[in-house]
Amino acid sequence: MLLATYAKPQAFSPDSRWLITTSLDSIIRTYDIPTGRLIDAFRTSSVATSIAFSPTNDFLATAHVDSVGVYLW
């Protein structure tokens, strides 16, 4: 049996309050670090391969497996 590993992209907000993760189910999740709770989640049309916050914490940028562009949320 061949096991493949996949490192889930993740990003901390500039103020270190939120953690954003994505996974192979195409769901981007936002966790509140002080409480440890999931505060938001949304499904994208394809798997995100990279995620990053803007320096001002206003936008989340994602790159996806089937796209050459960057999405701003």
Question: Can you summarize this structure?
Answer:
The protein is mainly beta and 73 residues long.
Folded structure, characterized:
The chain is mostly beta strands and 73 residues long. It has one domain. The chain contains no helices and seven strands. The chain has strands at residues 10-12, 18-22, 27-32, 37-43, 48-53, 60-64, 70-72. The strands form two sheets. A four-stranded antiparallel sheet has the order 1-2-3-4, with no helix packed on it. Strands 5-6-7 form a three-stranded antiparallel sheet, with no helix packed on it. It starts with 9 loop residues before the first strand and ends with a strand.
Mean pLDDT across all amino acids: 88
Strand order of the largest sheet: 1-2-3-4
The chain-level structural class is mainly beta
Distance between the termini: 39 Å
Number of strands: 7
Radius of gyration: 13 Å
Order of H and E elements: EEEEEEE
Main beta-sheet annotation: 4 strands, antiparallel
Number of domains: 1
Low-confidence stretches: none
Strand percent estimate: over 45%
Helix content: under 10%
The number of helical elements comes to 0
Shape: globular
